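Exercise: predict the structure of this protein bound to iron/sulfur cluster.
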Amino acid sequence: MLLEVKDLTLSLMRQGSYTKILEDVSFTVQKGETLGIVGESGCGKSMTALSLMKLLPDKAKLFGEVLLDSEDIVKLPRKNLEKIRGDQMSMIFQDPLTSLNPLHTVGKQIEETLVLHTNLNKSQRRNRVISLLKEVGLPRAEDLYNEYPHQLSGGMRQRIMIAIAMACNPKLLICDEPTTALDVTVQAQILELMNHLKETNDMGIIMITHDLGVVAEVCDNVMVMYAGQVVEKANVIELFQNPKHPYTKGLLYSIPQLEGKIEKLGSIPGTVPSPENMPVGCRFYDRCKYAMEKCKLETPPTVEIKDNHSTACWLYEEEVRENELIGS
Ligand code: SF4
Ligand code: MG
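Solution:
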């Protein structure tokens, strides 16, 4: 297993006291797998990603395990983390313009990662940069080396970010809404590139997105988050065809369907509860049309619906118990 995350729990200091942002988040990513993380904003998708990289504020408290090739990132001292970030694990974000330095050339910015993580000499680094630029599908690689970010289009800049992320052949690439700022055609090209890189480099990808088109295009498995917890996990086809959690159903169905094509996550009446005011029982209670009395009082257990499909909802407790009886 490339990545194994177990019971990841994160608390951040807010206005003088600790607030739990993530609770018992568990999942795995294999080599050559893309795991999608979906949910509304404020559900903990980005915080999950930042926790994996330990890019967290000073007073953050992180518990649980993040095993990358069996090495626990949560326990690693800061010094060792810098070796892992950019080398074994890289991240790309939504807006390439704010992530790139406007004062440095493209070549120099890709080279920085190589200086940090490799022993390549200057001419070797230059060669590597040129071949990376080609690998991410950019034309005129030699000229680009000396150009500045503002001279490039949004799509080209995102390719540069991918080149930086890929510079050291990471085992795991974490992408937070990487195509949200791009127009549809460019978005499709970037997704195609990511699929290609995943296959040729045999790496794992975590794709954070609110766009179901992106999920359908690149993800093998999907994890749905709500209010800092995982509410459902399944293979992508299974999740689209047989969603179980009322929140997942809401995301998939509450949207106008154009000729059967689902584009964006739907909007469900109500809002995500704030971390300061988490309900005691099911966190989706206020917005759930299937809510029962016990949902309000008790946290729903996570139940295995079938192989590689689980959900945290009281509706399925009976179903699973019956299956167990039949099996015993
Ligand atoms: Fe709805 Fe209850 Fe399931 Fe929560 S546990 S999603 S309130 S049915
Ligand atoms: Mg986010």
